[in-house]
Design brief:
Elements lengths: L4 H6 L11 H6 L1 H4 L3 E14 L2 E8 L2 E8 H4 L1 H8 L6 E10 L5 E12 L15 H6 L1 H7 L1 H23 L3 E2 L5 E2 L11 E4 L4 E5 L4 H9 L4 E9 L11 E10 L3 H20 L3 E4 L2 E4 L5 E4 H9 L8 H10 L11 H13 L7 E7 L8 E2 L2 E12 L2 E8 L4 H16 L10 H8 L5 E7 H9 L18
Parallel strand pairs: 3-5, 6-10, 14-15
Antiparallel strand pairs: 1-2, 1-4, 2-3, 4-5, 7-9, 8-9, 10-11, 11-19, 12-13, 15-17, 16-17, 17-18, 18-19
Helix pairs in contact: 7-8, 8-10, 8-16, 11-13, 12-13
Length: 472
């Protein structure tokens, strides 16, 4: 009777010295030909013929063929290797050569089992066809669809490039709380939690804005954070309840400086990760190279409606929205929601190349300074690409009197049933009362940026472990 499988697995090595990688060997064949190498990875194919065995080994960088001769390693080792299956993880050492067919191969002198696969891999020709299964079992997706690994390599490179851009311009990353006594900094419904030791109900952050602005008040000039945000809202191709953002704030700057910075950042980051500022997204070509287009929030809607939305009475505004198929959820029949929905329906779908939508109606933006020369508007922009919002920025409100009034208006909306209205944050207002310098701030969605960089149409494709409904 053979040794129990559990005992075999328990006796496998704790480590393996893999000095080389498949892609490096294949790219530098002239350097490696005839040289000793050692690699480790997963078997994706086994072909045995008489006294010969060919294994396909997949490591993090790619696939390489391994060639095992009976005469080189002996009967015992040959029989053991012949029993290996696709999915097993092995370490291989040997010399590099090319087969008659021209394939770069390791002539193996040693093949060691490092981990035994107890489950069979999906068929290599068909992979995983069920999209939901790919998201639920991302580990299998990565094994059988190596191109998915490239998505997450580019995601990592994107985040590194964003951080490098900001650090090179004097910004400092400072972490802010994930668990907060009050949520704020965005219009969103929060997730609730409970801190047992304190006996208090708290919230997962929907944004880090109010904390980063406290740092500006405290004397830092340029701060940022790449962080996870949590919003108890939609799950669709462009929204996830848990997602990644970058926000940055700069004292003595305004939204014009934020426009310059984000334009420069995207040009640099997309160019670095993709090799060009011009990329393919779906059937379209998007160019981050030229200066981004700028349009007025109000004028762009007025042009579509043939009306001046700011001059419409409430019932006229809601009627105009209803005639365009816009429906209002409970607590959201407000001017702010009407304005935002009109933009979403009438203007947003046409914004393919990067476009700044400027100067929002004041009702939409409780944390933003009034526009110079027109107090009906605020100095805010949103950046749209391929019909999706990518970034949102303000000339930050630093008047505590107006800020308190705006929070009170948000409280009134909450009483009407708007679950996304921001609560009054007395501590933040107290901080502002010590004096907040003029400040520009911006938030940008990392996941959506990666969607553009990797040409993916769903946010779930670029989140390693997206949220899915539990299986029963």
């Amino acid at each position: 009777m053979g040794e129990p499988l559990s005992d075999i697995i328990s006796s496998l090595p704790y480590s393996y010295d893999a000095k080389n990688r498949a892609a490096d060997i294949k790219a530098g064949y002239d350097k490696y030909e005839g040289k000793e190498v050692s690699v480790a990875g997963r078997i994706t194919g086994v072909r045995a013929s008489g006294k010969l065995i060919f294994l396909d080994l997949l490591d993090e960088t790619g696939k390489i063929q391994c060639y095992i001769e009976f005469s080189s390693i002996g009967e015992e080792s040959f029989s053991r290797i012949k029993a290996f299956n696709a999915g097993d993880i092995i370490g291989v050492s040997g010399t590099i050569f090319k087969t008659k067919a021209g394939e770069i191969t390791i002539k193996s002198s040693s093949v060691i089992l490092l981990s035994k696969a107890l489950r069979q891999l999906p068929d290599k020709w068909h992979g995983i066809q069920d999209v939901e299964l790919r998201y639920r079992k991302r580990f299998l997706d990565l094994i059988v669809n190596p191109e998915v690994r490239e998505v997450f390599r580019k995601r990592s490179r994107t985040i590194v490039a964003v951080r490098r851009f900001l650090e090179n311009r004097g910004f400092m990353e400072i972490e802010t709380p994930v668990i907060q006594p009050l949520y704020g900094g965005a219009d969103a419904e929060p997730f609730k939690t409970f801190v047992n030791t304190l006996g208090e109900e708290d919230y997962l952050r929907i944004a880090n804005e109010l904390y980063l602005k406290r740092l500006i008040i405290g004397g830092f000039t340029k701060v940022y954070e790449v962080y996870k945000a949590f919003r108890n809202e939609d799950i669709d191709t462009t929204h996830s309840p848990e997602f990644t953002m970058v926000e940055w704030y700069q004292a003595y700057a305004d939204y014009n400086e934020m426009m310059r910075l984000v334009e420069e950042m995207l040009r640099d980051v997309v160019g670095e990760v993709c090799g060009s500022a011009k990329i393919k997204y779906g059937d379209n070509e998007i160019d981050f190279g030229p200066s981004f287009k700028r349009i007025s929030f109000v004028e762009s809607i007025n042009k579509k409606l043939g009306l001046d939305v700011l001059k419409l009475a409430d019932d006229q505004l809601f009627k105009a929205a209803g005639e365009r198929g816009i429906k209002f959820e409970k607590g959201k029949r407000t001017r702010a929601h009407a304005y935002e929905k009109l933009l979403e329906v009438l203007v947003q779908p046409e914004l393919l190349n990067p476009t700044f939508v400027l100067d929002f109606p004041r009702e939409t933006s409780p944390l933003t300074r009034p526009k110079r020369g027109n107090p009906e508007l605020v100095e805010r922009f949103e950046l749209y690409v391929a019909g999706m919002e990518l970034a949102n920025a303000y000339s930050e409100l630093n008047n505590p009197f107006i800020q308190r009034e705006n929070f009170r208006a948000q409280e009134a909306m909450a009483k009407m049933g708007d679950k996304e209205a921001e609560p009054l944050d007395d501590v933040f207002i107290e901080a502002m009362e010590y004096g907040m310098p003029p400040t520009g701030g911006l938030g940008m969605g990392i996941d959506r940026l990666v969607m553009f960089i990797t040409n993916k149409q769903s946010i779930k494709e670029v989140i390693p472990f997206p949220m899915e409904k539990r299986q029963k």
